[in-house]
Design goal:
Layout: H1 2-24, H2 26-51, H3 67-87, H4 93-114, H5 130-156, E1 158-160, H6 166-201, H7 207-229, H8 233-253, H9 260-281, E2 285-287
Antiparallel strand pairs: 1-2
Length: about 290
C-alpha cells in the first residue's frame, strides 16, 4: 500500500522538482536580477514623475520619497528568498535552518533600508530624524551579527541519520515535498491577491506577515511529520528546538525596529547552541551535504 501511495503522489512531487530546478537555474536567476534592476529604476522614475506632477492618476500613487524605490526593491528580493526557503524544505532540516538565517539577515537589512523613507530629501540629519539613523544602525548591526552566526552554524551543522530505512526516508522526503508544494501554492495565491488589491487601492498589504504566519503552522506540521519517521528523543528534541528558533525569527518581524534585531540575534544564538548541543550528544552524525536528509 505504501508503494502504491508513493506511485500515486509521484506526479505532484515531480512538479515541485521541476519548479525547484527551474527556479535555481542560472538563466532564471539572471532574469530575476535584471527584472529587479529595471523595477528599481522604474520605481525611481515613477517617484520623480509624481514629484513633477506627470504621474498618471489612474495608477496607484507612490510616495514622494525616492527612498521608496529602495524599499520596494528589497521587498521583492525578500519575496525571492522566501520562495527559495519553500523550495529548500524537502532538504535536510539543517539546510532549511541555514536558509532561515539568510532570510533573517535580509529582513533586517530591508528594515534598515525601510527607515530611509523617514529621512528628508536632500538628506540631512537633525534631532527630529535621529531615531531613524539609530534604527538603521541597529538593524544593520543585527544583520551583520546574524550573518556571522550563519557562518558559524554552517561550520558546525551536521546531518543526523535518524532514519535508516531507504523506504521510510523516501516517504519522509515525499511528505516534505508535498508540504513545500502546498506552501508554494499558498505563496503564489496570496501574492497575486495582495498585488491585485494593492493595484486597486494603492494600500500596502501585509503579505509577509501573512506568509510568515502560514510558515509557523508549516513548521509545526514539519515537527509532526518528522516525529512519525523519527520518534526517538534526540530527533524530537532537535526538530522541536529548530521550530522554536524559526518561531522566534518570525516573531521578530512584528517587534518594534529596535527590538527586532535583538530577538532575531537571540534566535540565531539559540539555534547555534542547539546545534552544538545536539552534535555533541546525538548519535548518527554525518557531514552536512545536499539532499533530502533528516
Amino acid at each position: 500500500r505504501g508503494f502504491m501511495l508513493i506511485h500515486k503522489l509521484q506526479p505532484l512531487t515531480d512538479v515541485l522538482d521541476w519548479l525547484h530546478h527551474f527556479w535555481e537555474r542560472p538563466s532564471t536567476q539572471r532574469r530575476i536580477a535584471l527584472f529587479l534592476l529595471w523595477f528599481y529604476l522604474l520605481a525611481l522614475t515613477g517617484v520623480e514623475l509624481k514629484r513633477m506632477g506627470l504621474y498618471p492618476l489612474w495608477l496607484p500613487q507612490p510616495p514622494d520619497s525616492h527612498f521608496y524605490a529602495i524599499h520596494m526593491a528589497f521587498t521583492l528580493i525578500l519575496a525571492m528568498e522566501v520562495m527559495s526557503l519553500i523550495f529548500v524544505i524537502p532538504s535536510s532540516l539543517s539546510q532549511s535552518m541555514g536558509k532561515q538565517f539568510e532570510i533573517l539577515t535580509l529582513i533586517l537589512l530591508r528594515n534598515a533600508f525601510k527607515e530611509l523613507a523617514a529621512l528628508p530629501e536632500p538628506v540631512h540629519i537633525g534631532f527630529d530624524n535621529i531615531q531613524a539613523v539609530v534604527e538603521i544602525g541597529v538593524s544593520g548591526a543585527g544583520a551583520l551579527c546574524v550573518f556571522l552566526c550563519l557562518g558559524l552554524y554552517r561550520r558546525i551543522a551536521r546531518r543526523q541519520r535518524f532514519i535508516q530505512s531507504p523506504d521510510m526516508r523516501m516517504r519522509y522526503v515525499m511528505s516534505k515535498k508535498l508540504l513545500a508544494l502546498s506552501l508554494f501554492v499558498i505563496f503564489f495565491s496570496f501574492g497575486v491577491y495582495d498585488l491585485v488589491i494593492h493595484l486597486q487601492t494603492g494600500k500596502e498589504q501585509h503579505f509577509f506577515e501573512t506568509i510568515y504566519t502560514v510558515l509557523i503552522f508549516a513548521d509545526i506540521a514539519m515537527v509532526l511529520i518528522a516525529q512519525r519517521y523519527m520518534p526517538c528523543y534526540h530527533a524530537v528534541f532537535r526538530n522541536s528546538g529548530f521550530v522554536i528558533g524559526t518561531l522566534l525569527m518570525r516573531l521578530s518581524l512584528s517587534a518594534p525596529p529596535l527590538w527586532s534585531p535583538v530577538i532575531g540575534l537571540f534566535a540565531a544564538l539559540f539555534v547555534l547552541a542547539l546545534t552544538w548541543g545536539t552534535n555533541l550528544f546525538s548519535p548518527h552524525l554525518e557531514p552536512e551535504e545536499k539532499g533530502g536528509g533528516n
